[in-house]
Design brief:
- The protein has a domain at 16-63.
- It is an alpha+beta fold.
- It has 1 helix and 3 strands.
Length: 87
């Protein structure tokens, strides 16, 4: 009897873990702006990122959506400030 071979694909993505003042980490994937999650610890944030990405990819594959195949080579991070005149 022959074993069924299951093909798997790996999908690498850049993930940003932003420490929050109140504790924990905000998690975003720049290539997929629909994904935003949170973890109380860095370990939990990493697991949440993997889980959110897995759910997104499974849904996208089922519905035939295009998946970004190339990871971002560079993430540009900068602060932006605006001035407001309050009356």
């Amino acid at each position: 009897m022959r074993e069924k071979v299951i093909k798997t694909n790996e999908y690498p993505f850049t993930v940003i873990y932003e420490p929050l003042k109140e504790g924990g980490f905000n998690v975003v994937l720049p290539a997929i702006p629909e994904i935003c999650t949170f973890g109380r610890t860095l370990k939990e944030a990493r697991e949440m990122a993997k889980d959110a990405l897995r759910c997104y990819l499974e849904s996208a594959l089922k519905s035939g959506e295009l998946i970004p195949r190339k990871p971002l080579k560079r993430v540009l991070k900068e602060k932006v400030a605006v001035s407001l005149s309050l009356k």
